[in-house]
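Notebook B, p. 112. Complex prediction, attempt 2.
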Amino acid sequence: MKILVAISKTPETTAKISFTPDNKAFNTDGVQYIMNPYDEWYALVRGLELKEANGGSVTVINVGPPANDVIIRKALAIGADDAVRVNAEPLSARFVAEQIANHAKEAGYDLIIFGKETIDYSGALVPGMVAELLDLPFFSFAHYLEVDGKTATVTRDIEGGEEIAEAELPIVVSAIKGMAEQRIPNMRGIMMAKRKPLNVTEPVGTQGDVEIVAYTLPPEKSAVKLVEPENMDELVSLLHEEAKVI
Amino acid sequence: METTMKSSKVDKYQHHDYYLMDELLSEDHLLARDAVRDWVKREVTPIIEQYAEKAECPMHLFKGLAEIGAFGPSIPVEYGGGGMDEMAYGVIMQELERGDSGVRSMASVQSSLVMYPIYKYGTEAHRQKYLPKLGSGELIGCFGLTEPDHGSNPGGMITNIRDDGDAYILNGAKMWITNSPVADIAVVWAKDEAGVVRGMIVEADTEGYSAPEIHGKWSLRASITGELVFEDVRVPKDNVFPEIKGLKGPLSCLSKARYGIAWGAIGAALDCYDSALRYALERHQFGKPIGQFQLQQKKLAEMITEITKAQLLTWRLGQLANEGRVTPAQISMAKRNNVHMALQIAREARQIHGGMGITNEYPIMRHMMNLETVLTYEGTHDIHLLITGMDVTGLNAFK
């Protein structure tokens, strides 16, 4: 079974978020980056588990600049067999989806797995676009994925229950928590990753058709007001007049 | 045990890299460092306070340390190691000690004091027999040099071997041996009949071998420490390292371990600084965060200055180690400086945390107590000073 896992790079979860002076871009100064956890913990690990159970290979793909090689190496250290980096800034979902679909069309995969979204821009757009571009069935926000021969079973959370679906491979899946457990690369894996192929290709098509007008931060949380236990009247009036919840 | 001793505490640690030292590390080093950091956050932080409080060794971590490759990372892959360089070993030790000095000690001993001498001084048969199992954690090793009456003066050791045909008869006792009560094998240093120090592998199930645990430690409480007692233990001659004779054998192992400690101490210091910085920004007094007061800023500014200096020191030490040019005296300087630095930072960080600093809500007091051991084990603070003194003057102040 040939499996493709798409990985992206996101700021580390504790990074301080700020924007450039014109508010049109994320301020990257001093920001440390990680592999998007949904891609790493769920999509990649489930891909590896399926390969271990059924044979085959796991390729990872990333659309990004050379600085992304470190997260690609991490994916190889965790166990992916080879990697493709499309050498371009991932400026829009459509552009990224086109690059991934372009590669997948040539290489031919049985299964393409994504994390449900990146934790920075949270668009969750790319997996569906790739499925559409490749004309493949798409299962979003799945927490279970099993393959038996040529048939995949996918379980997704829906309001008040679960949806269990079956489809013939190839399919596209986006993974949420529960699909797999985080794997930490070991030292031998890190050393082996150096010898695994990381193929750099140039992008197709042109960059985005979307212009970012501005980013803003959410309003700061206001300070907590402490009310003495005996001042119940004050508490009630604050809840009524300021919080407006009663 | 594991479930009952797991806390829900979130490890908010963030790395501090004031001089952009990460740019001096390779991709492998960064991957190794981040992997161990992730492992510590997942496996060590949630349990370590409880184990330390109960003075119990988290035995299950031996397997985890083996799985991530913390045992023998710089031993070649064909012998079960990681095939990495000395810089990688350093960053691994830093991250482990960021979790706990005792956990770092578990890995230091296995790697530098057991696997390294077997690799360096053992026969091919020794390497084949022991190294893969030590790397995979199937075997736990310990290192016997220090004796009850011979710590800083190991040359005075009284543990000895007597020729008895196809074996040596080993007698004596070793003290302060990390991992000894749970070890399957011990690398032991003893004097032969000519008074020459020899190294050998002693299997724990040999008759006359015992390893009683030392209790009552207020430091490295999550690490198990014991004695090694040898009463007419028959050690096959094949188990003796053939070539290495004299103290340079054990001292070369200690150099490796001290190198790791120089890195490890930075980890403990970073954890204390990280916690103190966050606390200083969150804790309000007189209507503002205590981090806004000059005296707290002085503490924090001096901490990050000292950490940055130590990071530069160890990075250069790692480079020299990779090039095979590092001297034991250079390692002594870094071990002494960095451990003392970490201990001072733990004390300052404790003050910033106020009363909370003495509780197990924060890692400070545990690090501080651990570092009291680290200050004197693997060569005391004072002895390392004399090593530097001897190195620069050419005069020996030990005798």
